[in-house]
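Suppose you are handed a protein chain with no further information: no name, no annotation, nothing but its sequence. What can you learn? This example shows the usual starting point.
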Amino acid sequence: MLEVIAGEARKIAVASSLLFRPPKRSSDEEFIHYFTEVFAGKDGKKFLQACPPRPNGIGIRAIEKSETQFVRDTDPAFYPEAKSVGITAIAAAPLPVRKYIPEQTDKDLEQTGVLYVHFTRPSKNISDDDVKNIKEWLSIFAQIAANEIFHPTFRR
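A reasonable first move is to predict its three-dimensional structure. Written in structure tokens, the prediction is:
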């Protein structure tokens, strides 16, 4: 189901790839090989190999601010490694998994994942209105993905 959600989010955002960062992981090495990574589009794996999520990156900012973030290749905070594999912009939406989990459940489940979208089209062709729409749609898909993640996890 997450593959379907990822594919639809990628189509609506007119993005090259989408990456789901699972809410529970113990290390970046484990994360990179974690089977619940969801890629939609050919550029996701190439991007992940060149530029894995960073402790102070766009995904963490999305989690800390509880809102979708967007960064273009013209921004000083943009990753040079991303440019090297042809990525021109990245959006990241927090997956609000913890809102679905009752307080009395296991504390490791009370974490937040991230839904990343990568763009290869020239960032100058992504208007401010496009960014606003991308953020809105990605937030909706993050809610849907969080719901999908929660239910199978909670039924264990």
